[in-house]
What we know:
It is a single chain. By secondary structure, the protein is α+β, with helices and mostly antiparallel strands. Helices cover 31% and strands 18% of the residues. The chain has 2 domains: 8-150, CATH 3.30.1330.130; 156-189, Wheat Germ Agglutinin (Isolectin 2), domain 1 (2-Layer Sandwich), CATH 3.30.60. The chain is built from 6 helices and 7 strands; from the N terminus they run ααβαβββααβββα. Strands 2-1-3-4-5 form a 5-stranded mixed sheet, covered by helices on one side. The radius of gyration is 20 Å and the shape is globular.
Amino acid sequence: MNIGPYTFAQFKEKAxxxxxxxxxxxxxxxxxxxxxxxxxxxxxxxxAVVETKKCLPDAVQLLTPCSVGNQWMSIVxxxxxxxxxxxxxxxxxxxxxxxxxxxxxxxxxxxWFLKIKPKAEQDxxxxxxxxxxxxxxxxxxxxxxxxxERLRHARMGxxxxxxxxGEAYPAGDGAVCRGCQGEAPYLPA
Length: 189
């Protein structure tokens, strides 16, 4: 089963180039993205909501114009492996997730996804074969309506120079930048 314009083998290579290896989550995610996209009316300008930080955002970025950088993709980390594509103006769209009942027909995918087997015991070749054979057949697809007020896109607003470090920052963050407020994840060398 193809993934958009790509054969499975072609997309596997594209995934490896982008993600450093053809991660099962990225490959399954690609089928999920395509399943949701196929249900949108032709020509729909759409955005995406991804419910995990793991692998699935990369599938969205590889197969759609949506990215974190252009703010057409929001990551709302609910810890679920699901993605929704929706009309940018109306909010109507479709959510794709993995259907646990359908996974019963694909024991290696189930063992990987549900962490039943340690990674060292998983059969990677069989896992990839099952992913290709399953395609979007392991997905649950449901219509959704996005509540725009829950997906506020960040707006920069006025920019100021931090009096402490001298770097530009969003003035709305306070009297000094968030890094100088102690939120930076590192210390100066």
